[in-house]
Specification:
3 domains, Adenylosuccinate Synthetase, subunit A, domain 2, binds 6-O-phosphoryl inosine monophosphate, binds magnesium ion, Adenylosuccinate Synthetase, Chain A, domain 1
């Protein structure tokens, strides 16, 4: 099957949006399969910058784009994002965008709950405050409102009652005002005619797409270390972010994801709380943050920065079944005299070659570093290996060796075309 799945191999913000945008001219359909508008994908095309949180990045290239059932959808945000892109000349119609009719909705009460918990918590997760976690809770709790429910006012009313039976005591406990079910019903009724034209059985559409030999590009959000099972729990997001989720979150079956392209930043960043073994608190960390413009697209928070952690990415290669990586932001390392790569961890006198599951151990491990000589030349904008200084090539080779996956691409600036292509994932 000629499909490609793009996922983040670290803690998100690896540059997935740029690679999806770049690959989407080889694809027929682009699909989001998990997460919600907590994602922040930046696409730079010439002098236009597009910032997407919920829409699949394929919309910018005019590719058929699908928000799959695995995504939690804030319908008001969806309309805002459509309007924002419309203002940038990208006209999003139901011919271009499909919303899975069985996707669950994020409602204002989810955002309230997310923010109130974060405000009250001693151990904050550092969420994006957009209601993602509470919406997924209601999904697995079998009380969520789904896109298709917007079609039936009477059923919707009963579903809102059921939902509020759960939320009312929760809100009371957090000191939030009582939620008005009638108001929610009215708001959903108002928005329904704007949302429903996009809704259809996305699994069926995708089944047809694949049977006719067309190519699907799956766009992951967040990263493997934020996966609710495999990440640094509880400092994770509330969905499975690994490549396997592309199947369940779209309805395309286990062969659907195809070639798995892991997006890997040439160093490490994380936004929000939680363990981060190679985090730097010195000038190098500051350099990475400033030169790398490491500020969240969604919340504007400064990202924590550190050296490349090969142990984490090797784990990610296994968890996602990564076939090849796209290494991004190599140019941010330009000019650093010495580079460090984490090749193992020390924990209570023992050496580990993986990230242990327990939070206590994850916080206690110390990185074991290998040092490499940096390069002084600029790699920004390079489009072939011969444009790279020898030490930069050495760095990429060492990364490949340590993580056990080849570089299919190296991205050398946010611009769409500044990419070294080693192999086309659609051709693999
Ligand atoms: P992209 O797709 C980086 C992080 C939040 C927080 C944790 C839980 O741009 O890579 P949530 O709001 O999801 O419940 O927050 O997950 N987080 C991200 N970090 N990039 C993202 O998306 C993220 N989406 C969520 O900062 O630590
Ligand atoms: Mg982000």
């Amino acid at each position: 099957m000629a499909n490609v799945t793009v996922i983040g191999a670290q803690w998100g913000d690896e540059g997935k949006g740029k690679l999806v945008d770049w690959l989407s001219n080889r694809a027929d359909v682009v699909v989001r399969f998990q997460g919600g508008h907590n994602a922040g994908h930046t696409l730079v095309v010439g002098n236009q910058v597009y910032k997407l949180s919920l829409l699949p990045s394929g919309v910018v290239q005019g590719k058929l784009s699908v928000i799959g059932n695995g995504v939690v959808v804030d319908p008001w945000h969806l309309l805002e994002e459509i309007a924002k892109l419309g203002g940038q000349g990208v006209n999003i119609t139901p011919e271009l965008l499909v919303l899975a009719d069985n996707a669950c909705l994020i409602l204002p009460l989810h955002r309230d709950l997310d923010q109130a918990r974060e405000a009250a918590a001693v151990n904050k997760i550092g969420t994006t405050g957009r209601g993602i976690g509470p919406a997924y809770e209601d999904k697995v709790g079998r009380r969520a409102i789904r896109v298709d429910d917007l079609r039936d006012r009477d059923a919707l009313e009963a579903k809102i009652d059921r939902l509020l039976a759960h939320h009312t005591p929760l809100r009371r406990g957090l000191g939030l005002p009582e939620y008005d079910g009638a108001q929610l019903l009215a708001a959903l009724e108002e928005i329904a005619p704007k949302i429903l034209p996009f809704a259809q059985p996305a699994w069926k559409l995708l089944d047809g797409v694949v049977k006719s030999g067309k190519r699907v590009l799956f766009e992951g959000a967040q990263g493997a270390l934020l996966d609710v099972d495999h990440g640094t729990y509880p400092y994770v997001t509330s969905s499975n972010t690994v490549a396997g989720q592309a199947a369940a979150g779209s309805g395309l079956g286990p062969k659907g994801p195809g070639y798995v392209l892991g997006i890997v930043k040439a160093y490490t960043t994380r936004v929000g709380e939680g363990p981060f073994p190679t985090e730097l608190f010195d000038e190098v960390g500051q350099h990475l943050g400033t030169v790398g413009k490491e500020f969240g697209v969604v919340t504007g928070r400064a990202r924590r920065c550190g050296w490349f952690d090969a142990v984490l990415v090797r784990q990610s290669v296994a968890l996602n079944g990564i076939d090849g990586i796209a290494l991004t932001k190599l140019d941010i390392l330009d000019g650093l005299p010495t580079l460090k790569i984490c090749v193992g961890y020390k924990l209570r006198g023992e050496t580990l070659d993986y990230l242990p599951a327990g939070l206590k151990d994850q916080s206690a491990i110390e990185p074991i570093y290998e040092e490499m000589e940096g390069w002084s030349e600029s790699t920004a904008g390079a489009t072939s290996w011969k444009d790279l200084p020898a030490n930069a090539v050495k760095y990429v080779r060492r990364v490949e060796e340590l993580i056990g996956a080849p570089a299919a691409m190296v991205s050398t600036s946010p611009q769409r075309d500044d990419t070294i292509m080693v192999r086309d994932p659609f051709q693999d």
